[in-house]
What we know:
CATH topology of the largest domain in chain A: Rossmann fold
Helix content of chain A: 25-40%
Bound molecules: thiamine diphosphate, magnesium ion
Number of domains of chain A: 2
Oligomer: heterotetramer
Number of helices of chain C: 11
Largest interface: C-D, 82 and 83 residues
Strand order of the largest sheet of chain A: 3-2-4-5-7-6-12
Distance between the termini of chain A: 29 Å
CATH architecture of the largest domain in chain A: 3-Layer(aba) Sandwich
Distance between the termini of chain C: 90 Å
Amino acid sequence: MNAMTKTEEAKLDAASPMNMIQAINSALDIMLGRDPNVLTFGEDVGYFGGVFRATEGLQKKYGLNRCFDTPITEGGIIGTAIGMATYGLRPVVEIQFADYIYPGYDQIVSEAARIRYRSAGDFTAPMTIRTPYGGGIFGGQTHSQSPEALFTHVAGVVTVIPSNPYDAKGLLISAIESDDPVVIFEPKRLYNGPFEGYPDKPVTPWQKVEGNLVPEGYYTVPLGKARTVREGQDVTVLAYGTMVHVAVAAATEAGVDAEVIDLRTLAPVDLEAIVASVRKTGRCVIVHEATRTSGFGAELSALVQEHCFYALEAPILRVTGWDTPYPHAFEWEYFPGPTRVARALKQVMVG
Amino acid sequence: MNAMTKTEEAKLDAASPMNMIQAINSALDIMLGRDPNVLTFGEDVGYFGGVFRATEGLQKKYGLNRCFDTPITEGGIIGTAIGMATYGLRPVVEIQFADYIYPGYDQIVSEAARIRYRSAGDFTAPMTIRTPYGGGIFGGQTHSQSPEALFTHVAGVVTVIPSNPYDAKGLLISAIESDDPVVIFEPKRLYNGPFEGYPDKPVTPWQKVEGNLVPEGYYTVPLGKARTVREGQDVTVLAYGTMVHVAVAAATEAGVDAEVIDLRTLAPVDLEAIVASVRKTGRCVIVHEATRTSGFGAELSALVQEHCFYALEAPILRVTGWDTPYPHAFEWEYFPGPTRVARALKQVMVG
Amino acid sequence: MASTRTAPPAKGLKNSRALSLRIPEPRFRPGEKADFSSLVIPEAGATPRPEVDTAPKDMRELAYGMIRVLDRDGQPVGPWNPKLDPATLKRGLKTMMLTRAYDDRMYRAQRQGKTSFYMKCTGEEAVAAAAAMVLTREDMCFPTYRQQGLLIARDYPLVDMMNQVYSNAKDPMKGRQLPVMYSSKKDGFFTISGNLGTQVPQAVGWAMASAYKGDDKIAATWIGDGSTAEGDFHEAMIFASVYRAPVILNIVNNQWAISSFHGIAGGEDATFASRAIGYNLPALRVDGNDFLAVYAATEWAAERARSNLGATLIEHYTYRAEGHSTSDDPSRYRPTDEGKIWPLGDPIERLKQHLIALGEWSDDKQQALYEELVELVRAAGRESETHGTLHAGERPSIKTMFEDVYKEMDWRLVEQRQELGI
Amino acid sequence: MASTRTAPPAKGLKNSRALSLRIPEPRFRPGEKADFSSLVIPEAGATPRPEVDTAPKDMRELAYGMIRVLDRDGQPVGPWNPKLDPATLKRGLKTMMLTRAYDDRMYRAQRQGKTSFYMKCTGEEAVAAAAAMVLTREDMCFPTYRQQGLLIARDYPLVDMMNQVYSNAKDPMKGRQLPVMYSSKKDGFFTISGNLGTQVPQAVGWAMASAYKGDDKIAATWIGDGSTAEGDFHEAMIFASVYRAPVILNIVNNQWAISSFHGIAGGEDATFASRAIGYNLPALRVDGNDFLAVYAATEWAAERARSNLGATLIEHYTYRAEGHSTSDDPSRYRPTDEGKIWPLGDPIERLKQHLIALGEWSDDKQQALYEELVELVRAAGRESETHGTLHAGERPSIKTMFEDVYKEMDWRLVEQRQELGI
Ligand SMILES: Cc1ncc(C[n+]2csc(CCOP(=O)(O)OP(=O)(O)O)c2C)c(N)n1
Ligand SMILES: Cc1ncc(C[n+]2csc(CCOP(=O)(O)OP(=O)(O)O)c2C)c(N)n1
Ligand SMILES: [Mg+2]
Ligand SMILES: [Mg+2]
């Protein structure tokens, strides 16, 4: 783990080794405390504290009005949140699983993303949609999806995916403060601890991960900025969410001096960081859990070849989920684990 | 126009110079006539014959039950069509504009696309969704969108875009006969005549386009097969829908010997045709109207560089709509017209 | 146990009658003679007016009645008479007439190629005009494309409306929106969406925000009869009911959704107002062509919302007297005289008649006002056209095309703007 | 004109009372004593039984009543008594008991790590058991994850159900689905979706297809109280109403949606059955723990559908006696004894009591049947486990992972399968 840069470390006076749920909870707690316009709601979010417990204790602390349960209608949740945001509030809504965001898709694509533009800034919809995504938990087809590419294609929406508690908290605070609508996909497989993609290896809880210290107070991680997780000379690996940890493990497994970049924000992506790294290494492997065709890896691949064509020494490779739904029994055959990523790393080295 | 191959020409005994609406209407007419399980419905589709008149006369000819109006609910239209398809019917539904498909998105992504897989073939949803898409008609934000990439990412759905009346009819018949759910985006700017992207040039109606002959009877154009519209040696242009005509015009404008490929089916795309052409030309320009980031051009770019890396002599370029909503007054600044495509063709030639 | 029965075997033994589908059809098609004599329309004054704090379950019948104030002779009758003074009535009349004059001019402008598209609200002017007078500018209206009357009632400059329709250099929407898709926050007018139904949950959310803040603003939203079929409508009703949002949910039942009659939206067997019943929300059904009735119903619903009693659904029973839009030709799907014999008449005529019956107005005054308003619109039109029309004259600056996608332009938009060479 | 009024100015002059939000809360939380004595539950036999061809508007009150047949002593009373013979009653009892025994075993299997997830329907067994006996295999059921009883009633092999739960080598779904997401077309059981609400418009479409074909099959679908908030539910009601689809729309109101009580879905102020009123559909509200009542209501709705009179909504009033799923812990959000004091009792107990009252059954027979069924389940479990469990033993062939995405595998899947090395 190399989760923090030097300047960030300065703020760690009062910090604790939170897991990702605690970090998210802390971000919400802080923002509910700082800004009376912040409120949070969603299915089972209130008294129960959310099925993943991200809002635990918040209703008790801030009252029924600030953190509450909603009817089971993702369209209604997002539609009303848009109305609130145009009033001047900063709603943070939870969609219980990213697989269930589609009934609210029209409100995101046609409304939240467009309101500023179509009204020439007369109205804006500063709101945050949090939703757990990704596989690795035997969730089957509808508790494992990675639909991020369906959002990166939508102009007007910011798409964010953290890979560790520090970023999850800092990015969530940035999202809530952002004047644009932000969708944060939370890698649910990482809630309790980093996961390198070895299903049989026991998981280390975040609390025991070296260097995992999350400040108790307010701080932000900027939107639109990637982070280099592992420096390397030979190949650039572009990853986000759970795949960041898989990529680091794969570099070790392959014995390749890979530079692993955690994108953190997918749209707008940190092109500068990507280009600088690929120009240095001359090689690139892209990793994501989502279905390959038209996944966000396609955009990354296109960007890299557009901006680094003359630096590339081998084809850019994509290691991704297959073009199938996520099959319950084949979790580890579907999940792009370190062995598949390592193979790509070796392959890209021979060109 | 080079719309047909030799074998296809054989069928032109009874053919007429239909426009694209007539061709689509003819496909529906033929399939309603051949198969009692085919029926068609959607908003204003019945008595009125559809706002673009694609279903004109069909209610009169086949009766209320075979062609009817629906409530304004894209989710309901697609959801009930899925139910019908699982019964054994072959519903063909119209979504009035592709911009309005999002309320039905969950039913497409989570249901139509998944039913075969999740039931291990016990149930299937053979159905066709037709919807006019694309710009060039001063339709503003919500009558101009090109959301195809939001479907190419969905495993289980076939995505089709015709560029001329012959293909529109033949692909629609193939779609109706397909046992998989198919979404056909119809380039509404091409309904009446081909459009090269010069807004000031008068449009030639399809009826007057040389070689535009559509068989009156039954025929199919296979799904998954591209078509070379213009042969060339210097650069491959990958396009679909309206952009096919723009690309051909741009080749002339640029004076570049471009090979223009009309993809026709986007998912599964005809990789073989693409690779063969790019390996020959060594250069590639991709054109689409949709927003650039995570558009289908990204997938094409990724595929090309994965499969033709060592053949590429210059970076693959994307000419696309901007990462903004489609702005009413700036139709021609947004629309990727022949001038922009020609510039890319020249640029890719210098590398 | 002779009187007992066995469950049928899992296979067979069913009633073997062949099922069939029912596809609703309007009673009259082009070429046929429309005839509304069988339409059941309650008499003016007949529908009771409960107190606003009545429990919804005790006033369900309102969803099947019809609030009407003006009788055949233009006299106000019954408990819903809002008892407005002549000055207020004249303001209402003027708003409706100005709306119609504005519509007429912009419709012609589209026909002249000055813009791409236009939508009139002819015959439905009372719906927006009366509501705008009940609500304040601090309240927020979430309209469809057919409530331009809200802006006109609030004296929003006609020139600015036209600038939007023309997408010209002074278009407040910077050329980005289809014509008629206005937005004016300061006038309590929400940015109109091209996607039907989406504004309804947004209005509920906005109203919830006001309540959340302990403010006193309420929201109102309008949706067409056809569009109530969208899931958004239902989702909005649930939120409105569960959180008791201070919002007025208006359904404008103008009988048609482009070419589909109200029966295709489920409006033949049940009233649209009755949709509220399953959510324990009160529903009013109103003669939408009776300015006084719309006024009174809106006032009742607003009072209920402001008293923290929650949402009300209002169905405005009216008729879309003209085509859906400039892209439509209604003679292809309904008798051309249907609108003329529509039994609830024309809202402008009816309010005029009422003012005349009060001794406050005359045909001459009506004619004079009409000419004055036409001239007002003409002058505004001339001014607006100096700033350009869609295909001629000035446009907004092209570089604004890349602005307002996000608060700040990111590298993608900067790069793309450069690519366009501006 | 002293009695007339002026419209308020556009700004100000409002009622200045601060608004507030209402967030519904259940009456009892953990640590509190649940008390249902104030719950209004109609007496058995009290709700009338209209003819199936009665106009929906003439039977709206059914949406607020409750069809109940078994009285406190287990005697059948009133017009809804389906008068079933003892053999049929015993079949119903056995189905419910087998469902419960199956649930218990699979729940334990999950706890033992043999699969990832499980969901019980404890306390709600009557809902599926009775419906399955009324409907035939040619009809199609569109269930949620809580109607496993439908399959059990149709003698679908327990072993196959278990194979699905274990995603083992013999799993009919080839390891692709989350446990409990069964599918069996030949038994009229539609593939269960993980996405709530989507099956409702599908059921309507399937029913429309039967009517379109002139067939005599009907559809039935189930949705939870919480899930009725999804737009799909409303969209399905519109289609069902407009095209008069032969479908039964069941709402299983088990009072909870994971941790949210029914009030969050709008079920506190209005009944879920009353949602049908706005669509002119008849609605029955049924004691969901009374096997005879569920049977009778389903029979009535099925007869209506088969007579081409269209759809019926049925609200089954019941109680989710256990946690939402193996991932849930209800003691965190409701009193642990709530289920025990739930006034409508347990459906198995009540049918048993009825059979005893009829002189057809005894506690001993009940115990013997229970033991027999537990043994049946145990044997099936043992057999299923020989084909593997989620993390041990055989699985379906990995290459099937790439099949059935499309009818034919395209080059992408072929290439990807090769990439995986199989
Ligand atoms: C989601 C969506 N679907 C379809 C359309 C196309 N459309 C525009 S207006 C219209 C008819 C609306 O009818 P109604 O709701 O009755 O309103 P009215 O036009 O009568 O005022 C349709 C189908 C749309 N704009 N948005
Ligand atoms: C579209 C969608 N949103 C959310 C979920 C997550 N979820 C699964 S079950 C459930 C509760 C459903 O409650 P209810 O409809 O009352 O059915 P019950 O579980 O009580 O039978 C939720 C929120 C989902 N599966 N699909
Ligand atoms: Mg209408
Ligand atoms: Mg429930």
